[in-house]
């Protein structure tokens, strides 16, 4: 047990750092969407597709990656994802046409799969009553999107697009080496054996898998959608420069990052259902406020930050719920499925927003759809997990 306690803080910290680095790589296109749009003369729909395409692979890829994490362990899988992600990161930086950007952007989804590695990795280090805290702290690694939103446009200005992408590739290589040399799988963890398909079928038979997948699609999907598409939205509606839009998007992401571990920790104390109820109710209200197209900074900026806070609470609450309702041996596979749903939840909103803006010149319909979806998630949470 002493070995378990000694390894908890170090391995949680390393997993969180690896998650942040890979999420930075996953979100390399979004902060530069304005420059890509101008350089390649893209329509709003083409820009939204370019922003959303990494999310697709990062979502669906979590299913097989979650299964592999059960079999190979988080230490090796984190390193593998870091090393493999170097290739699309470099080629996105070198691409000069819309077609190649879409292709390498598709493969840029690979670093977005790291979430399905980290949840079972940190869960195995902690007792069930502390897993909400552990997964919440690990989930703060989604702050990699904030790092990307703030630093990527500035790095491009200083180093050029090639230089910025080379730097991110070097950070990924270093992170992979650190995970191989510095992290360890929990003594409680043992590799899953047998075929992956039966485990996935068994996970799909668990009702809680589908319920948590829907809730995570709303909470994490909402966060991903805004963190990737917000630079485009702020430039088109409020006419911010690319670096200014990136700065404000970083603020949005940081609010969600800080509230995610809070959501997990509070869920350990009062239960995840109450946390999720607050999350979805708050998100619905903020979406309706933003639908009115309020002025920039206040109240619009404040509304975006509060929405990020509520979405972050929800992402922390969902996996506290997973830890309570799913047995430990199936957490990796279930996490892959739930994580995939969360990523898919972030794939479609940017496309919808792009189409809505192209058709109406405003995002009002998109915000109303988000408010309705959050309200449905609130009702579902209270009915499905009522005690």
TrEMBL record:
The chain crosses the membrane at residues 12-29, 49-69, 76-95, 101-126, 133-151, 163-181, 208-230, 245-263, 275-292, 298-322, 334-359, 365-386. Keywords: Membrane, Nitrate assimilation, Transmembrane, Transmembrane helix. It is a multi-pass membrane protein. It comes from Nonomuraea composti. Gene3D superfamilies: MFS general substrate transporter like domains. It is found in: Cell membrane. Belongs to the major facilitator superfamily. Nitrate/nitrite porter (TC 2.A.1.8) family. Pfam families: MFS_1. SUPFAM superfamilies: MFS general substrate transporter. Its main location: membrane. It comes from the Bacteria. This is NarK/NasA family nitrate transporter. Residues 11-387 form the Major facilitator superfamily (MFS) profile domain.
């Amino acid at each position: 047990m002493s070995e378990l306690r000694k390894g908890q803080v170090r391995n949680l910290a390393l997993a969180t750092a690896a998650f942040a680095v890979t999420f930075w790589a996953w979100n390399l296109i979004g902060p530069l969407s304005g420059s890509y749009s101008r350089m390649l003369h893209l329509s709003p729909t083409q820009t939204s597709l370019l922003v959303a395409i990494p999310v697709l692979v990062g979502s669906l890829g979590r299913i097989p990656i979650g299964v592999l994490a059960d079999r190979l362990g988080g230490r090796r899988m984190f390193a593998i994802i870091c090393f493999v992600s170097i290739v699309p990161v470099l080629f996105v930086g070198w691409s000069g046409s819309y077609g190649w950007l879409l292709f390498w952007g598709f493969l840029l989804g690979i670093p977005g799969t790291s979430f399905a590695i980290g949840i079972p990795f940190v869960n195995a280090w902690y007792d069930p009553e502390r897993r909400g805290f552990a997964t919440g702290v690990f989930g703060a690694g989604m702050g990699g999107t904030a790092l990307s939103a703030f630093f990527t446009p500035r790095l491009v200005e200083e180093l050029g697009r090639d230089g910025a992408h080379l730097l991110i590739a070097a950070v990924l290589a270093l992170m992979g080496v650190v995970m191989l040399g510095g992290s360890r799988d929990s003594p409680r963890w043992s590799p899953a054996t047998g075929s992956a398909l039966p485990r996935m079928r068994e996970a799909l038979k668990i009702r809680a898998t589908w319920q948590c997948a829907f809730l995570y699609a709303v909470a994490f999907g909402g966060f991903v959608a805004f963190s990737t598409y917000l630079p485009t939205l702020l430039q088109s509606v409020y006419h911010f420069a690319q670096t200014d839009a990136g700065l404000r998007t970083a603020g949005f992401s940081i609010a969600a990052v800080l509230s995610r571990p809070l959501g997990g920790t509070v869920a350990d104390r009062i239960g995840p259902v109450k946390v999720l109820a607050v999350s979805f109710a708050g998100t619905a209200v903020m979406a309706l406020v933003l639908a009115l197209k309020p002025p920039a900074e206040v109240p619009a900026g404040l509304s975006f930050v509060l929405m990020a806070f509520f979405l972050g609470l929800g992402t922390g609450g969902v996996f506290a719920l997973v830890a309570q309702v799913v047995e430990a041996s199936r957490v990796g596979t279930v996490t892959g499925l739930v994580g995939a749903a969360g990523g898919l939840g972030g794939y479609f909103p940017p496309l919808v927003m792009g189409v809505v803006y192209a058709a109406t010149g405003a995002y009002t319909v998109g915000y109303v759809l988000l408010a309705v979806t959050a309200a449905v998630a609130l009702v579902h949470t209270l009915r499905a997990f009522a005690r």
